[in-house]
Amino acid sequence: MELTLRDAATVVHGMGFGALLLFGFSGAFIGIHATSVSRSPWLPGDREWRLFSLYLGVMAGLAWLAVFAGAYVIYPWYRAVPPAGAALAGYPQRLLMSNPATSGWHDIGMEWKEHIAWLAPISLTACAYVFWRYGARLYAMKGLRNVVIGLALLAFVATGVAGFFGAMLNKFAPVRGGAAIVLMKGKAGG
Amino acid sequence: MADAEFTASVNGPGAAAVLAASIGGFALGALALAGDAAPSVAHLLIIWKPTGPLSGVTTVAIAVWLFAWLLLAGLWRRRDVSMTIVGASSAALMAGGLLLTFPPFMDLLQGK
Questions:
Q1: Number of domains in chain B
Q2: Interchain proximity B18–A107, CB inside 8 Å
Q3: Which DSSP category does A182 fall into?
Q4: What is the mean pLDDT of residues B91-98?
Q5: To the nearest 5 percent, what fractions of chain B are helix, strand and coil?
Q6: Where are chain A's structural domains?
Q7: How far apart are CA A37 and CA A142, in angstroms?
Q8: Pick from B13, B20, B28: which is nearest to A118 by CB?
Q9: Which letter does DSSP use for residue A177 in this model?
Q10: Domain that holds residue B36
Q11: What region does B111 belong to: left with phi over 0, alpha with psi -120 to 50, or beta?
Q12: Minimal CA–CA distance to A113: which of A29, A170, A59?
């Protein structure tokens, strides 16, 4: 059972940072609702507020790691230009664009994903800051609270779009190559 | 003491964070469109060649976001601001940023 270095990097980017971030939204929305929207709000103590702010900060950190790893580690492999006559299997962007049935995954999927993903860390950083700055006082600041909830929703949409297209792109044109990493020795045959 | 309590409860710093994030989001969309529409702009946005124009689009957008945050935070440090105006502006900027990153909308604007 092997995978390549690029497979591993893609897994860290997509599942390590991206999927973990998507899971994190469920906790974030429960926390935001319980502390600041519910009619009978959960009133956490200072320690719980600090922990919830830290939780949002960790989400923002995951989002930053995901976009930087995506843009500066995975994307250069994805968009590499093949030498003349080379097989396109190792050049995902060119492979997708070589076929009208798959070119849209690049033209719309990757082109949208590579930009929209950055809205998530920017929005989540603002959310984490507001929760850290105001804590329990946010319950009385309806206007600010509503805008922050909007930003959290936007971050969720951005992460969802990036995650969906990332998964689909990896199905049609996986970023593969580099040194082999052996996870487990197997037996040949049945 | 009362002054510290007032400063802690004004919404200016939070509004600054939210509006700056929206300005950064809009800058991201506008730069993505500019790079897509003009090859000369795309070339200017190449800060790191392996990543291409995306490196410049995102770096400049982050710089705009942080600069806007710094500026607004300084201006609104001890002020209560209208969240109706900040909220509406943020929503419009983020919606614009979101639309401008969507390739079919970019193509529509360019008449492609």
A1: 1
A2: no
A3: E
A4: 97
A5: 80, 0, 20
A6: 2-81+88-182
A7: 9
A8: B28
A9: -
A10: 2-109
A11: left
A12: A170
The token pair at B77 is 């440090």
Name residue, tokens 């580690």.
A73
ipTM of the complex in this document: 0.94
Q: Which of B15, B55, B90 sits opposite A71 (nearest CB)?
A: B55
Site from A132, A147, A165 to mutate, B interface, most B CB atoms within 10 angstroms: A147
* Spatial separation of the C-alpha atoms in residues A10 and A22, rounded to whole Å: 16
- The C-alpha atoms of residue B61 and residue B84 are separated, in whole angstroms, by 25
* pTM reported for the whole predicted model: 0.94
Residue-by-residue DSSP string for A19-83: IHHHHHHHHHHHHHIIIIISSS-----HHHHHHHHHHHHHHHHHHHHHHHHIIIIIHHHHTPPPP
* pLDDT band, very low/low/confident/very high, at B5 (cuts 50, 70, 90): low
